[in-house]
Write a structure and sequence with these properties.
Blueprint (H helix, E strand, L loop, with lengths): L2 H19 L7 H7 L3 H9 L1 H25 L1 H24 L2 H10 L6 H19 L10 H16 L5 H8 L2 H9 L3 H48 L7 H20 L8
C-alpha cells in the first residue's frame, strides 16, 4: 500500500470515528477533529469552500466519506454496543482522545502566546463547570417535531464547530436524543432533513467566525480549545464499574485507544 493510500485510509478511519463519536452522548465531534489534526482544514473549507477546496480536498474527502459511514451505517451498531457496555465504549474513546493530548499541547505551545495559557485554565474551569451543571440537570419532556429537529441540527453543528461541546449530551437531557438517534438509524427523512437544515445554516454562519479567530488569534484559541478537550475527557471518563473484571477491561480499552491514537499519528499526514 502506497503512502498516499495509507493516508487516505487513515483519514477515512478517522472520519468514521468522528461520525460515530458525533452521535455518542458525551463525545464531541469537534474534539475528535482537533484530536486527529483536521480541525483547521475543516474550518478553512467550511468557511470558504470554493477557494479552499483545492488545498484541502485530499484531506477532507476521505474524512467526509468515513464520517458518513460512521454517522449513518454504524449508528445502530454503536447504540447496541453502548447498551451492552457503555463503560467500555466510552473508555475506548477516552483513550483515543487522551492519546492525542501530548501532540495538541506541543502544537499549542509552538503557536506562541505564552500568556495564553491563562485561557487554557479559564476554558478548562468554565467548560468543566458547564458540563457538570448540564450533567446534573433534569431531562426535559419535549415532543419532537420539525422545528425541534432543526434545533437538533443547530446543536449538532455547534458541536462540530466548538470542540468540547457535546450535542448528544445536551439533547439527551432535553429528551430529544432518543428520537433523533432512532430517526438516524432508520434513515427517517422526517428527522434527517430538518437536522441537515439546522446543521448547514449553523456551520455556514459559525465556521467563518471560527476560521477568522484561527487566522488572527491561533495562539490563544489553541489553548482555549485544549481546555475544552481536557475538560470533556474529565467529564466522560468512566468512574463507576460493575466489578473488577469490567475495571480491567475498561483500562484495557483505554490503553488500546491511547495506543491507536499514537500509532495513527494524529498530526496531518504528508500528502
Amino acid at each position: 500500500m502506497t503512502p498516499t493510500w495509507k493516508n487516505h485510509l487513515l483519514r477515512f478511519l478517522q472520519g468514521a470515528l468522528i461520525g460515530t463519536g458525533a452521535i455518542l452522548p458525551g463525545i464531541s465531534g469537534g474534539v475528535l477533529c482537533v484530536a486527529f489534526g483536521i480541525y483547521e482544514s475543516m474550518m478553512a473549507f467550511l468557511s470558504h469552500p470554493r477557494s479552499s477546496f483545492k488545498s484541502n480536498y485530499k484531506i477532507l474527502l476521505p474524512v467526509i466519506a468515513g464520517g458518513a459511514v460512521g454517522f449513518i451505517l454504524l449508528a445502530k451498531v454503536v447504540e447496541s454496543l453502548l447498551a451492552a457496555s457503555a463503560v467500555l465504549a466510552i473508555s475506548l474513546f477516552c483513550g483515543l482522545i487522551c492519546g492525542t493530548v501530548p501532540d495538541l499541547m506541543k502544537k499549542s505551545a509552538a503557536a506562541g502566546a505564552e500568556k495564553g495559557w491563562s485561557f487554557f485554565i479559564i476554558a478548562l474551569i468554565a467548560s468543566f463547570t458547564f458540563f457538570h451543571i448540564l450533567d446534573s440537570g433534569m431531562e426535559g419532556h419535549i415532543s419532537p417535531n420539525f422545528g425541534w429537529y432543526i434545533f437538533c441540527g443547530v446543536i449538532w453543528g455547534l458541536s462540530m464547530i466548538v470542540p468540547g461541546l457535546s450535542s448528544s449530551s445536551i439533547l439527551l437531557f432535553m429528551g430529544l436524543y432518543q428520537p433523533m438517534a432512532e430517526g438516524i438509524g432508520n434513515i427517517d427523512f422526517g428527522v434527517l432533513i430538518p437536522m441537515m437544515l439546522g446543521f448547514i445554516v449553523t456551520v455556514a454562519v459559525c465556521a467563518k467566525i471560527m476560521n477568522r479567530l484561527i487566522q488572527q488569534h491561533y495562539g490563544v484559541l489553541s489553548k482555549f480549545i485544549l481546555g475544552f478537550v481536557v475538560s470533556s475527557v474529565l467529564m466522560i471518563v468512566p468512574t463507576s464499574f460493575s466489578g473488577i473484571l469490567q475495571l480491567i477491561l475498561g483500562i484495557l480499552c483505554f490503553a488500546i485507544g491511547f495506543i491507536l491514537a499514537r500509532m495513527m499519528d494524529v498530526r496531518r499526514p504528508e500528502e
